[in-house]
Automatic annotation (TrEMBL):
<dbReference type="InterPro" id="IPR036526">
    <property type="entry name" value="C-N_Hydrolase_sf"/>
</dbReference>
<dbReference type="Pfam" id="PF00795">
    <property type="entry name" value="CN_hydrolase"/>
</dbReference>
<protein>
    <submittedName>
        <fullName>Aliphatic amidase family protein</fullName>
    </submittedName>
</protein>
<dbReference type="InterPro" id="IPR003010">
    <property type="entry name" value="C-N_Hydrolase"/>
</dbReference>
<keyword id="KW-0378">Hydrolase</keyword>
<dbReference type="InterPro" id="IPR050345">
    <property type="entry name" value="Aliph_Amidase/BUP"/>
</dbReference>
<dbReference type="GO" id="GO:0016811">
    <property type="term" value="F:hydrolase activity, acting on carbon-nitrogen (but not peptide) bonds, in linear amides"/>
</dbReference>
<feature type="domain" description="CN hydrolase">
    <location>
        <begin position="18"/>
        <end position="262"/>
    </location>
</feature>
Amino acid sequence: MNRGNVFGINGKIETECLTVVGAQYAPIGAMGMEEVDRNTDVLLSFMDRASGGFPGFDLFVAPEACIQGFPQFGWEKALLTMDSPQIKKFQEKCAELEVYGVFDFLLRVDEQNNFTNTAIVINDKGEIIHRYDKMNPWIPFEGSIPGRSCTVCDGPKGAKLGIIICADGDYPEMWREAAVQGANVIIRPTHYMDPWQNAWEITNKSGAYFNQVYVVAVNCSGTAENENFSCFGRSMILGPDGNVICEGANGAPSMIKADLYPGIIDAMRSQAVHSAPMYSYVHRGASSHPYAGRGLDTSDYTAYKRGGDDGTV
């Protein structure tokens, strides 16, 4: 059954339904572990409410820096490690509710308080099965150490999850990297701020359409304690045609939920049908006589070839 998009698909498609819930709120800009714990309790409460409001859901997504926020100063006292008890609580909650979860934390990497902006995937048994370090920290504000790769992990109901974080989504190569790695659902935890609501919508829609993928973009919402920025919320889940399936409140806490069909994405990418950009990406020119049915087997793009050592492109 062909649902949730305007693309043509040849033949019969059978796929499981992936139910995704995202929670948007304003985490306190934590300047110590007491505030981290307060944020942790809020997020655990959202997970419990999601279980009651959307029983049987498969995947829970939280926003960027979900229990730490981005305070103006004092953030170094709120950095976590992968062994922190707060992360253990989310592992236990995922196991209790039997759901997968995506959570984003600021993790200390050394005694000089260097840190990464890191998203993890926890499975329904409470195991951490995937880690992604943000590859494009927001210059000049964000001092996290950039990650070096964007890989994909298996999720529930046939999902292949690619994670990008906030400013990552402002760069088209990030969306394409996740899609080329096999993601049929790209998850984007964010701390996206006013007044960039227009850019938020444009980047999410274009990321979904150009890469023929579901997008789950979960933003913070509101003006938090100890933060200078106001986040507008508007978390959204989009289909592979770039259309918004559901959207959260503007500037207020809320939850969003949508049913997705990852198998449709896999089928679309494997067929030479109308408006299939990811098929065309690997089978460019497949409709031409010399390359009929297969397309060119080389990439002639130069956009991602870096320039000189002086940073020019």
